[in-house]
Amino acid sequence: MTLYEIRVQEHLSAQRLRAFAGITVGHDSSGETTIIGSFPDQSALFGLLNWLHDLGAVLVSLRRLETPKNGKA
Amino acid sequence: MIESGAMNTSLLTTKLYIPPPRASLVGRPRLVERLDKGLRLSHRLTLISASAGSGKTTLLSEWAASCERQFCWLSLDEDDSEPTRFWTYIIAALQTAHSQMGQSLLPMLQGPQPAPARTLLIPLINEIAALPEHIVLALDDYHLVTGKSIHDDVAFLIDHLPPQLHLVIATRADPPLPIARLRTRGQLTELRADDLRFTADEAAAFLSDVMGLDLPPEDIAALDARTEGWISGLHLAALSMQGHQDAHAFIEDFTGGHRYILDYLVEEVLSRQPDPAQCFLLQTSILGRLCAPLCDALTGEHNSAEMLERLRQANLFIIPLDDEQRWYRYHHLFGDLLRKRLGQTLSQEQIVGLHQRAGRWYEENGLFEQAVKHLRAAGDFERIAGIAEHAAGESLLDARLTTLLRWVDGLPEDVLYAHPRLQIYHAWALYMNGHLAVAQQALGACRRALEALPENDALRHAWSRLLDIIEMVAQGFMSAMDNKLEEAIRVCSRARDMALEDGHIFLAAQATEGLALAQYHQGRLRASAQSCRQVIELAEQSTAQAPLAAAGCVELAGIYTEWNDLETAAELLDKAVELCRQWGIVQTLSEAYTAQSRLRQARRDIEGAWEALRKAGEFSLMEGGRSMVNFRLAAQQSRLNLQAGQPGEVIDWVTGMKAAFPFGEDSVSLPAAFIATLQTILARAYLAQGKAKEALAALEPLLLPAEDAGASLHVIEICTLKALALHALGDTPSALALLERSMALAEPEGYARMYLNEGEPMTVLLREAASKGVAPDYANRLLGVYEGMGVREYGSTEEMAPTHPHSHTPTPPHPTTPSLADPLTPRERDVLHLISLGLSNQQIAEELVIALNTVKRHTGSIYSKLDVKSRTQAIIRARELGLISYRPSR
Questions:
Q1: Which residues contact B745 (CB under 8 A, 6 or more apart)?
Q2: 20 to 30 A Cα–Cα from B427, which one of A7, A11, B483, B789?
Q3: Which residues of chain A have a CB within 8 Å of the CB of B81?
Q4: B193 interfacial to chain A (CB closer than 8 Å)
């Protein structure tokens, strides 16, 4: 499992992301949405990114929060 | 293996072909066992999610070959993000197991107005649930599907999956489906990148048994470590080594480098191929599917058959798509890499040339869908226009218009201008699909294009006339709705005659329908019925004109309902529903159900009336209140609400509609016919509340314009309601005078429901009329019908209450009214309330003093919680759930 932080430019409700497990959704005063999620592999991460793309969300940043132990994810 | 049709949705059967496991494959019993176990445990879904080249498809085909259950297969591609196409292919895939499965649903998907998939899923699920044995449906490359609506519908399918069907999804990225929920409930079999990696043993077996390499264990370990067990990586590495004298040196170089593994390997593999093969691979990489004649056309050589066979034997990432060794495709990852190389190797013009040759080959072979795709890539819009024009000429004026719209979409304007015929077809297709404003623009553009042609141009003359007819039909309809009845009749009659002269049956029928509508508003039921029959007759001259026959039946049923010949009306509506279902005419289906709701209300089958209304909502496609269909639907809902004793809610709705579409002396935003309907509904609501004066006020502004326009239908209705109001106020002489006027117009045309629907107050008034010698025969006939019915219509709610348990609850009867899993927030309820009043998003934003985007977010969330796709559906659903209750207007 690898922890990623994804920021998008607008206010997205957790409801719209409910299909994805292991994520927390936060909003800040700037109107951006921060999603922090722990993903088993790249397919899981890209699944979420694709969905954000489908929703028309504008990606601000993507950051890996911790280095995976096995270097694979 | 490929079926085709000019404008038909041609299905590529190669997409349904299960790739055979290669004989020389490394078996993966540990994974197959996990897949089998999922079936034994009755998991709903198997998800195989891993990056490209991980061996997903290969594993699935191995499983399919050994699995005891019947396997259905669908290889998805980018085009399948269109819901109609997606579900058509799903049904086609299921039909490989059961040839009749979903057959009756296909027309609904492929008609001129495709049904929302959700309405078809329930019958499809029921068909699956009736299967005698269990089957597996595998969807390969699911990541190529984008768009919320398909994912939502697949999620719905998964949620309601009967045990007979096990779904398998193979994808590069996790789909937005309720995977997490299935996982926690133990209903999911999941294989991910880590599971698919070759183990050291499998890697060794692959390199030696499949690729024929004899490597020492330490080299195998090094390769396995560098590729991380990634199958395509190993495969490419092995292919590279097959040509190397010194495999060990290659491995050292490869495992020691830091270059991106794929670039490195593809370069290696390609450079090992002889020049002709390299050239072949690059040139044909633009093809989604390959067959020898097509490849020959592309390369200009005649050796493609041998070339394909050689690639297949060399295990060069080529996958058969049928068992006749005709169609192949490249492994997706390999194809992507080849195309990337192609871009670096050939010039842009050369690549365009390849697409052009592919497009022409497909065109010559009648596969227009694929031809258009390549020609688009080549930027050869001229040729696309030619294909579309040709195909449209064959089969336009019937049902298959969406394909035409799709083909024409994106053509540059100058190309469209150069093809006036296509332009007219396009405008007509837009018109038929309900894009009225765009259609009118397009028609205007056609006109200008034609006028630019020389005076004596034969084309100019012929097509100007067709354009005239189309414009007249469109104009006639709008006039009919806007109480310009004389004009509507003049225009529609002329359009009909011209269309008949020129042999445009469809247009003639359409014009006659406009005529029927105008006559109906003139109060001339008999003439209108005659026109409706003519529409049906014209339409039935050719089966392809079924959409109009259905519309004719619906209108005619409305007239028979008015005549209180409910049997005939019911028969006509059954016929209309059947035609609509058979031909996929969703908009008319919605109208038919609305008419059925009215009919059932007349028959006092109130539950049935709500049920029909719910169906009408399901099939209603258009957003907002401007569409006639939705307007009729909402008006019928108001009638049922009135019957249920909720005049307050009805007044709310009318107020909202008027706020949404402000009208007055100088406003034309809402057609006169809609305004009349709104105001008469409002008057009835006031009457039900005992506010006769308000009812009179609501009717007052209508009478003169209706008389001026010769809209006797409205005159009759207004006079009738005014008579009731005056009678309630105790002014019997004035009431009788108005009733007499109404009946004088109504009697020759045989109106009945006009009076019967008004219930108890009307019987009192009619008795009064009969006794005072006001149209006594007609009045007595109507009273006789009342006695025959033995019950009272709405208007006397207290007395009806005992027989209608629902009349005091805001929830219409619905046998399985569920509650919401995810309840609406108070704000969402506010927004929903305003939606139900017909306010636009902008108006809601102003009303609640919030940003437009916030409103959109709320409506999105409301739709998703209510599981609906449009405002109309949301309102109906909300009423079913009792979420909208009467609240005083703000």
A1: B523, B712, B715, B716, B719
A2: B483
A3: none
A4: yes
Give the type of residue at B276: P
The ipTM is: 0.79
- pLDDT recorded at residue B814: 37
Q: How do residues B601-616 score in pLDDT, each as one tens digit?
A: 999 899 999 999 988 8
Contact present, B295 and B307 (Cβ < 8 Å): yes
Q: By the 8 A CB rule, do B724 and B687 touch?
A: yes
Tokens of B57: 């498809």
Q: What is the model's pLDDT at position B136?
A: 96
Q: How far apart are CA B217 and CA B111, in angstroms?
A: 61
pLDDT tens for B495-530 read 999 988 887 777 888 899 999 999 999 999 999 999
- At B104, the amino acid letter reads S
Give me the CATH topology for the region B13-196: Rossmann fold (3.40.50)
pLDDT digit string, tens, across residues B373-408: 899 999 999 999 888 887 765 554 444 566 677 788
A55-64, B14-23, B174-183, B305-314: least confident range: B14-23
Closest-CA distance of chain A to residue B868, Å: 15
Crossing angle between the packed helical segments B458-481 and B436-451, to the nearest 10 degrees: 150
Using the beta-carbon criterion (under 8 Å), do A46 and B174 form an inter-chain contact?
yes
* Residue B819: both structure tokens together: 């509650």
Residues from chain A contacting residue B171 (CB–CB below 8 Å)? 43, 47
Residues in chain B: 890
Using an 8 Å Cβ cutoff, are A35 and A5 in contact?
Answer: yes
The pair of three-digit structure tokens given for residue B221, joined into one six-digit string: 């370990």
The CATH number fitting domain B275-378, selected from 1.10.150, 1.10.10, 3.40.50, 1.20.120: 1.10.10
pLDDT of residue B620: 67
Main-chain phi, psi angles of B100, to 5 degrees: -100, -5
| Residue of chain A with shortest Cα separation from B195 | A41
Q: Which amino acid is at B538?
A: L
Contacts of A18 in chain B (CB under 8 A): 178
Q: Which two tokens stand for residue A47?
A: 């699944």
| Number of residues written out for chain A | 73
Q: How far apart are CA A71 and CA B357, in angstroms?
A: 46
In this predicted structure, what is the pLDDT of residue B717? Answer: 95
Is B177 in CB contact (< 8 Å) with chain A?
yes
DSSP code at position B189: E
- Cβ neighbours of B151 in A, within 8 Å: 19, 54
> What is the pLDDT averaged over residues B523-549?
84
How far are the Cα atoms of A26, A44, B175, B487, B647 from residue A10, in angstroms, in the given order? Answer: 11, 22, 22, 52, 42
- At the topology level, CATH places domain B381-452 in 1.25.40
Give me the CATH code for the B816-890 domain, please: 1.10.10.10
DSSP of B755-787:
HHTT-HHHHHHHHHHHHTTSSHHHHHHHHHHHH
B599-633 burial, b if ≥16 CB within 10 A, otherwise e? Answer: bbbbebebebbbbbbbbbbbbbbbeebebbbbbbb
